[in-house]
Amino acid sequence: MDNLAASKAGLWTGRVMTTLFVLFMLMDAGMKLVPLTPVVETMTKMQLPVSMARPIGIIELVSLALFLWPRTAVLGAVLLTGVFGGAIASHWRLGDPLFSHVLFGVYLGILMWGGLWLRDPRLRAIMPLRS
Fold first, then answer.
1. What's the DSSP call for residue 120?
2. DSSP label at 57?
3. What is the pLDDT of residue 5?
4. Helices and strands, number each (H, E), in the chain
5. C-alpha to C-alpha distance for 119 and 8, rounded to whole angstroms
6. What is the CA radius of gyration of the chain?
């Protein structure tokens, strides 16, 4: 019974992590599609053309859709990991603060992969935790 309770708790923790991640990504991609003033300011600060905001938002949404579809969830997670890597590199290049800006993509990756790992027994089978 303890294993059943632990797996239910793990499943629900994974669902909560995934929900938080998805809500953040929907907000982030949506802001890039408009693009809102903070996006324009950030793109300018990062020395990127503002015209790149919409394509980045579309890439995020397509990758997120793949992540949400169970059969392609790992592919979506891999693609989003690439997006986060680009953001990490860009912030690092500019000398932005480490914990609030540079590592934010790492935090999102942990939330995304952690939620998927807790929800998907196939992923746990190929990526087990070792003691």
1. -
2. H
3. 46
4. 6, 0
5. 10
6. 16
Distance CA 19, CA 17 (A): 5
Q: What is the DSSP letter of 72?
A: G
Long-range contacts of 41-48 (CB under 8 A, 24+ apart): 45/94, 46/90, 46/91, 46/94, 47/94, 48/90
pTM (two decimals): 0.92
As a whole number of angstroms, the longest Cα–Cα distance in the chain is 56
**Is-contact 127 117, C-beta < 8 A?**
yes
Cβ count near 79 (within 10 Å)? 18
* Distance between CA atoms of residues 100 and 87, nearest Å: 12
Q: Which residue shows structure tokens 């952690």?
A: 114
Q: What is the tens place of the pLDDT at every residue in 102-121? A: 999 999 999 999 999 999 99
Q: Which amino acid is at 19?
A: T
- Say which residues have a Cβ less than 8 Å from residue 96's Cβ, sequence separation at least 6: 102
CA distance 115 to 37: 31
Nearest to 116 by CA among 84, 58, 60, 69: 69
